Amino acid sequence: MYSIYHFYKDLVEKKEYFNTIQKLEDFPYDLSMIACKNNGVFPDIALKLNNGNKDITGGEFIELKDSASYTVSSFNSTIPTGRKEISKIILSENSQIKKQMEEAGNHIYSVPIRDVFYLIRGKKNNNIKICLVHGSFFETISIEDLIKESFGLVLEERLSQIGKELPDEWKYKFLSIFSEQKNFSKVRDVNKSSVKLRFRIMTEVKAEGNLLNSIRYPEIIDNSMNFLLPLHNQNDEENFKEKIESVFGKKELKKFNIFKIKHLLNGYFLNYQTSI
Questions:
Q1: One domain, residues 34 and 155
Q2: Are 130 and 101 within one domain?
Q3: SS3 242
Q4: Of 97, 187, 248, 260, which residue is the least packed, with the fewest Cβ within 10 Å?
C-alpha cells in the first residue's frame, strides 16, 4: 500500500535522520513507495498509486521545503496548492515524470487530481520543526484569484502614478485574462530582441501561513514532527482517523499527541504530533 499516511509512518520510523541530514533530499525515503523523484521540478516526490483502491488511492505529490530558520522558505515558480491536476504536471508524452510513473506501474490518469503535501523542515537555535502539511494550509484563496488580485494591485498602483482611470468593466476583463500561471511560465521571444523574457512567479508565506512561527502557531513545538490534514468538510476528521489508524494501528497512535489547530485564515487542521 502507498499513501501519504504510509509516507508519514516511514518518516516517523526514521525521524532521527532529520537532525543529521544536510538537505531534505538526503533523507532515506522508502523508494518502494515512490513513483518519481526529482530535484527542482514539481513535484519533488510523487507517491505510487494503489491501482483500483478507492479508499486509499495514493499518488500524492510532495514538495520539500528546507529552511535555516522558522520561516517557510519561498515557493519558486509553483504557487502552493492543495490539489493539482496530473495533466498540468505531465505536459508532453516525453515528460520525464510521466516516464518514471509509468515505469513504477501506475495508471497515471486513473487519479486525475492529486492531493499536494509539503514536507517542511525549519531550524532555530539547534532546534528543529518538521511538518508534513496539506497544501490547503497555504492556499486560502484560489491560485487564479491570487494572481488576478495581485495584478489588480499593480494596475491600480500604476494608474494612480500616471493619474489615469479605467472603467471597472475594462479592469475586470484585463485581469480575467491574466489569471493563469501558465501564461507566465513560457519564454517569450520578441522580434529583433537579442534576449528572451520570462516572468517568474515566486510565492512567500505570510505570517498567517507560517506554521513554523512559534507566536502564530505555538502548538507546533520545537523538536516535533507534525502531520497536518485539513478539516474542511463534515466527515474529514473521521475519514482521516480511519485511514491513519489502518496504517499505524491504535496502539502506536497512543504515542502521538493528536489535536486540532486553528488556521488563522482557513479553518481547522488535524495534527498528529510526535517528538524527535
A1: no
A2: yes
A3: helix
A4: 187
Instruction: Please compute the mean of the pLDDT values over residues 131-144 and round it to a whole number.
Output: 91
Q: Clarify whether residues 64 and 122 are in a common domain.
A: yes
- Name the H helices within the chain: 4-13, 86-89, 96-103, 143-162, 168-177, 236-248, 250-253
Give the residue among 66, 60, 62 at the shortest CA–CA distance from 44: 62
What is the grid cell recorded at 259?
489535536
Grouping H, G, I as helix, E, B as strand and the rest as coil, residue 253 is helix
- The reply to whether 105 and 28 lie within a common domain is yes
Q: What is the pLDDT of residue 78?
A: 83
Note the pLDDT tens digit of each residue in 211-247: 999 999 999 999 999 999 999 988 999 999 999 999 9
Q: Which domain holds residue 155?
A: 142-201
Q: What is the mean pLDDT of residues 65-89?
A: 90
Same-domain check for residues 12 and 111: yes
Q: How far is CA 44 from CA 49, 95, 110, 191, 216, in A?
A: 16, 14, 21, 36, 28
| Whether residue 39 sits in one domain with residue 127 | yes
Q: How far apart are CA 135 and CA 146, in angstroms?
A: 15
Relative to beta strand 61-66, strand 113-124 is parallel
Are residue 155 and residue 128 in the same domain, yes or no?
A: no
What are 12-58's pLDDT values in tens digits? Answer: 999 999 999 999 999 999 999 999 998 878 899 999 998 777 788 89
What's residue 153's pLDDT?
82
- How many domains are contained in the chain? 2
Q: Which residue has the cell 481547522?
A: 268
